[in-house]
Amino acid sequence: MGGGQSSTKAQTMQEQLQIQQNKQIKSSKYPPFSESEVLSLNKKFRQLDTSNRNSISLEQFKNLLEIRMHFFSQRIYQLIEFDMNQSSVETMDFQKFMSILSVFHPLTEKIDKLRYMFRIYDYNGDDKVTQDDLVSVFKLIYMQTQSFLRKNSKQRVLQTNFMNEDYVTKLGKDIMNIVDSNGSGDIDIGEFQGKFTDSDVQFRMNIVF
User: Fold this and answer.
1) Measured between alpha carbons, how far is residue 169 from residues 131, 164, 193 in Å?
2) Has this prediction a pTM greater than 0.85?
3) How many helices (H) and strands (E) does the chain have?
């Protein structure tokens, strides 16, 4: 979906980042993280663990800046909550914390990042992406954006066409027409994976920890 000079520049920057990542000493316990990244994230985990119980709740996890500032932060939180409910747990230890973050590491395989992105867009979790799923995700992102603007701007946040429900619905329909190559009315994982370039995936799913 990406293209042009800006896409090429972004890809070059990501390639340089990956070269730097490959030069670091890798952690044998928490791949693909480096030992220095593990130390840094362990420090952040302990800061989140205000109760000193070696585990954190989802609400505490939400204070991690790297995810809080992510474009899909609200969907990421929803997916974590779903997985925790499926496992009947209310907190995560450091190992689970690292497992959650690993998909965003620049050295994680593209296929793993695409599978997670598919889960982000599969709003109702039925293993396919429909127009309703897309609209629900877009609405969530736009509400998140509005909330951020209200908190960080003294000026009144204006309602624009970008936030209009009709526009969001049209956007979902337009994307379906592009990505739904077989006209089935939904997008399967195969169709989804074929629509993203390396730079698209890196831009959406890479975090420097």
Assistant:
1) 8, 9, 23
2) no
3) 11, 4
